[in-house]
Design goal:
314 residues; alpha/beta; nine-stranded mixed beta sheet; four-stranded mixed beta sheet; UDP-N-acetylmuramoyl-L-alanine:D-glutamate ligase
Length: 314
């Protein structure tokens, strides 16, 4: 029987400027809204692959909330842990790409419905049905989200469930009060760690990658996957190292690629796939994600990943 994956965290819509430039100081043509939120993108990719999936979150009783609920339900995600809050607004992110590929954001998350997440009876019941919990660092940066995420970790690991952890943190929020303690607490229980690039150094004093990986493995992390974007990815455990080369795709919108990569890797890892197989499919999921505008639009099915890998390896 397939293990059921739970994540806790923000759900929002993303609205994207169609022009490039720095920010929103003058009117811009926009596309969207698109379903979004790193945990929501991750769990949607899990659901698209047919792995049992669930999320605990909170949305407003508005079109933006319904847009997200409809997408998650359509892709097989259990939304019984999503509270719909009357009179509150669903979170949003307005995004504009700069010419160098970096992004400028205007967020409404902390003061949206998601920012007021609390532990509900429905959320507690959902935790009891899940075997694996995936934590995003962003879910530890707000008090309500952090409390619920840590409760999910405590309950699921206490009965032998597993934990994956993607730090997914912007440098400017690392000084948030209590965040470092929460990150350390989660890392200490992590079975699968999924940092992007330099995030491997967040929890170690090591100054090179090999030393950082060794230190984390020595501290009890079972598997480490370093996401390298368009440079591919690497997996490390006690048995050694496995690398996968990048897939060549036409990048349209990179937002969500790392979350789709993580969702695919966790899905295959939980199913007992070899590191090489899980990396190949995760790499393909990340590559597919960048081909569509909108962070969740490129989440792929198994058939789509098979086709993409067939093209690249044929």
């Amino acid at each position: 029987m397939s293990k059921k994956v739970l994540t806790v965290g923000e759900i929002l819509v993303e609205i994207v400027a169609t022009t490039k430039g720095d920010g929103f100081l003058e009117p811009q043509p926009l596309v969207g809204p698109f379903p979004s939120g790193a945990p929501a993108i991750f769990i949607d990719q899990i659901g698209r692959l047919g792995t049992p999936a669930a999320i605990i979150s909170r949305v407003g009783d508005d079109d933006f909330g319904r847009l997200n609920l409809d997408r998650l339900i359509a892709d097989g995600v259990d939304v019984s842990g999503i509270e719909v809050a009357r009179g509150e607004a669903t979170g949003s992110a307005f995004v504009r790409y700069r010419p160098d590929g970096s992004r400028a954001f205007v967020y409404n998350i902390a003061h949206s419905a998601t920012g007021n997440l609390t532990l509900t009876p429905d959320a507690e019941a959902l935790m009891e049905s899940c075997d694996h919990v995936h934590v995003m660092g962003t879910a530890l940066s707000a008090p309500g989200l952090s409390q619920v995420a840590r409760e999910a970790v405590a309950r699921i690991t206490a009965r032998g469930g597993t934990l994956s952890f993607d730090p997914n943190l912007r440098p400017e929020i690392l000084d948030t009060p209590g965040l470092r303690e929460a990150l350390d607490e989660v890392l200490a229980q992590t079975n699968l760690f999924l940092p992007s690039g330099e995030e491997i150094y967040l929890f170690t004093e090591a100054d090179d990658e090999a030393a950082a990986v060794k230190e984390l493995l020595d501290r009890g992390v079972g598997d480490i996957v370093i996401k390298r974007g368009n440079q591919g990815a690497s997996h490390f455990n006690r048995a050694g190292r496995t690398d996968v080369a990048p897939l060549s795709t036409d990048e349209v919108d990179p937002t969500g690629a790392g979350d789709c990569f993580g969702g695919a890797f966790v899905s295959f890892w939980l199913a007992g796939a070899s590191p090489e197989t899980a990396l190949r499919f995760a790499n393909a999921a990340g590559a597919n994600a960048v081909t569509k505008v909108g962070p969740m639009e490129g989440a792929a099915t198994r058939d789509e990943l098979d086709a993409l890998l067939g093209q690249s390896e044929g």
